[in-house]
Amino acid sequence: MTKTRITLFAAAALTLAAIAFALVPSGREEFPGVVSIETTATYKDTQLLEKAWALPVAAAYRSAIFDYQRNASVCGPTSVVDIMRSLGRPQNQETVLDGADVWTLFGYVVPAGMTLDEVAALLHLRTGQPVKILRDLDLAAFRAELPHMNDPARRYLVNFTRGPLFGRGHGHHSPILGYLPDEDLVFIGDVNRDYAGPWLVKAERLFAAIDTIDDSSGKKRGLLAMTVPGPTPSP
Predict the structure, then answer these.
(1) How many domains does the chain divide into?
(2) Predicted structure pTM score
């Protein structure tokens, strides 16, 4: 390959990378008037976090190596990685999308990350288990799911938009690690390292962030619920 061709190839690669990056939300959108949950006393209260980590599902995540997304587009795949690891089944961001009907470019999921339906399909692909999409929930139906989030035989993933919680940000996926009923706090295993890992949020406040429309799909956000699979190796 000549020097000119190498230069043209490098320029084309950089252009494609720039396009992929531009298609992914930056996470900097602002929501004036929203007071971030980061200002609440319970968001990262040390004692409450320790109590949350003692919950049975959270303990399974804690005993594994929790992974964080490598770029802004892969919160969905990373959430699947962490669910798999909590089940004692090795998985990583480099291979989790193998065989999935997802388009990637230079490590980015394009055009704008994964929808809840796509993440459900990926979780099913990796585990072989039925994955239930819980969408269009009202607050009562959402609350009915909360006690099950501490069931070691289940795993939950949440799709929400950060705006109603933090006053900034875009749509996001993360595993739910558990629920503290006495405090009415949901324990979120945030796969975005910029938010410094797991945090706690009031159930009704989280519901407000779920009860929003995903512009990519035109559908409501929601939850994924899965029964823990048996020991069959992951595909």
Answers:
(1) 1
(2) 0.86
